[in-house]
Specification:
Radius of gyration: 38 Å
Strand content: under 5%
Cofactor: FAD
Keywords: Disulfide bond, Electron transport, Endoplasmic reticulum, FAD, Flavoprotein, Glycoprotein, Membrane, Oxidoreductase, Redox-active center, Signal, Transport
Order of helices and strands: HHHEEHEEEHHHEEHHHHHHHH
Structural class: mainly alpha
Distance between the termini: 7 Å
Protein name: Endoplasmic oxidoreductin
Strand order of the largest sheet: 1-5-2
GO molecular function, one term: thiol oxidase activity
Largest sheet: 3 strands, antiparallel
Membrane topology: Peripheral membrane protein
Number of strands: 7
Length: about 525
């Protein structure tokens, strides 16, 4: 009996020894790891999400046409805007905000603008040379600024004592850290300046000749559009949609510049920021589409005025002097003219991309055009509310550039663009603003292409690194589960061992003594 109880007890211990690891294994490995490759936010979007194709809305041009043209246009413009005529821009950065109190201070060093002395700009643009310039009659507008009837925005004037010369190449548009209520107030006000809802009385007044063109002072805040969201009303007139596309495209283009030249505040290095591009632009297809739209509109303005621009004086050589310095300046002027003509030729290749005659053509056209001018003039005034000097600089320049394009397309007749009839039709600041704005838009499209390449590289790297990361995550997960199960099973294992020992004690009370006696040869025979 003792031997039977001994064998039963040993079997119980053996079964327990076999069962406990299996029990633990069952709990530890009940669920297998389930790993997936981490996906970029763009990857889950539909095909063509960040690579639009087909016709650009409200144009006679396709996305692919602009992208192909931009391969030549952006390098040509990037070279042109580095020439003295196009890189020096006079602007007044210290006007007061006419709409709300703005302290105009940005404590971030990146917000600052480096001005240049007048002695460092070409002699033709200095005060002494420009003092004899006679300006045309103007009408008073918002905040004491002055507008000619054809102007869509306030024009910076090289001949005025106000303002400072800026070297645009030395003050590039990039991330400055400017944000908060001040920036939000600016964009909110800009998007609200789309008041084109015409009342019968206004239309009647216009038809009766009682609405003076160029003298309107529109109110702020009518029919606001939400910033960053396309208008959903299918009944909106094309002129109102045009305004929205212009502003949205300009906003998106600025956001692309910020993302493309972003300050890594950890490393202190400047470079592209894919996450910033995704969150500000790529996640909103209409914003990206409007950048393309603006490129088409600007190119149409340049091509329409190409005969005028070919006769425009973009040289820096002073008249009536011949020396070594002026000979060098003439060589530089020839280089600038060649680059300028190259850009004009590229623009003329897309001359039919935008049809300006489809806008402001109905019975309400004269009223709509004046309201459009008033809204865009207010936008130029709102730029004086920007609290970051560098942001204000590029905001004012680009609003002026778009204003010049709108003026060429909607306020001037073909005969007005004849350089023999109107040699002084556009001021130098308008020409500089127009071509730098076109450069900004083409650089945005170039940056979009670079972001696509960055995204493709990150996807490839992600796919290559995924197996190792998945294996590492699985191992870490298994280790965590094993540790958790061991913590959970510890009390159970101790209880099971105690139960086994108790079973052995009950079934084989004298087992230890019997085994000892058996091993020592002294066990009683009756017990075996």
């Amino acid at each position: 009996m003792l031997w039977l109880r001994l064998r039963l007890g040993l079997a119980t211990v053996a079964l327990a020894a076999l069962f406990l690891p299996l029990l633990a294994a069952t709990h530890l490995y009940a669920s297998k790891p389930n790993s997936k490759i981490a996906r970029n936010v763009l990857e889950s979007k539909t095909e063509g999400y960040c690579s639009p194709s087909g016709p650009i809305e409200a144009t006679n041009c396709a996305y692919e046409t602009i992208e192909t043209l931009n391969k030549d246009l952006f390098p040509a413009l990037d070279s042109l805007v580095r020439e003295p005529f196009f890189r020096h821009y006079k602007v007044d950065l210290y006007k007061e905000c006419p709409f709300w109190r703005e302290n105009g201070l940005c404590m971030n060093r990146a917000c600052g603008v480096e001005t240049i002395d007048e002695a460092d700009v070409p002699e033709k643009w200095r005060s002494a040379a420009l003092s004899a310039v006679v300006t045309t009659d103007m009408n008073e507008g918002v905040n004491g600024c002055y507008f000619r009837d054809d102007d869509f925005c306030f024009i910076e004037d090289d001949a005025t004592p106000e303002g400072q010369y800026i070297d645009l190449i030395e003050n590039p548009e990039r991330f400055t850290g400017y944000a908060g209520d001040s920036a939000h107030n600016v964009w909110r006000a800009i998007y609200q300046e789309n008041c084109f809802g015409l009342s019968e009385s206004v239309i009647a007044a216009a038809r009766d000749g009682k609405l003076a063109p160029g003298r309107s002072r529109p109110a702020m805040g009518l029919n606001p559009l939400q910033a960053g969201h396309a208008p959903q009303d299918a009944d909106l007139c094309e002129e109102k949609k045009l305004y929205y596309r212009l502003i949205s495209g300009m906003h998106a283009s600025i956001s692309i510049h910020i993302a493309a030249d972003y300050l890594n505040q950890t490393t202190g290095e400047w470079g592209p920021n894919l996450d910033c591009f995704v969150s500000r632009v790529a996640s909103y297809p209409d914003r990206l589409s409007n950048v393309y739209f603006n490129a088409v509109l600007l190119l149409r303005a340049v091509s329409r005025a190409a005969p005028y621009f070919r006769a425009y004086d973009i040289g820096i050589t002073p008249r009536g002097r011949e020396d070594e310095c002026t000979r060098a300046q003439r060589a530089a002027d020839a280089r600038t003219r060649t680059a300028f003509d190259g850009v004009l030729t590229l623009a003329e290749g897309l001359a039919k991309g935008f049809d300006e005659e489809q806008f402001f053509a109905g019975a309400d056209g004269p009223v709509l055009i004046e309201q459009f001018k008033g809204a865009f003039r207010n936008v130029s005034a709102i730029m004086d509310c920007v609290g970051c000097d560098k942001c204000r600089l590029w905001g004012k320049l680009q609003v002026s550039g778009f204003g010049t394009a709108l003026k060429i397309l909607f306020a001037l007749q073909d005969k007005d663009l004849d350089p023999r009839v109107n040699p002084n039709l556009l001021q130098r600041s308008e020409v500089v603003a127009l071509y730098n704005t076109l450069h900004r838009v083409t650089e945005s499209l170039h940056a979009v292409d670079e972001f696509r390449q960055i995204y493709a590289r990150t996807q490839k790297e992600e796919a290559e690194a995924a197996p190792k990361r998945a294996a590492k995550r699985a191992a870490e997960r298994d280790a965590r589960r094993r540790a958790e199960r061991e913590r959970e099973l510890g009390p159970r294992i101790r209880a099971a061992v105690a139960a086994v020992l108790e079973a052995v004690r009950r079934h084989c009370r004298d087992c230890v003594k019997a085994v000892k006696g058996l091993l020592g040869g002294s066990a009683p025979k009756g017990e075996l």
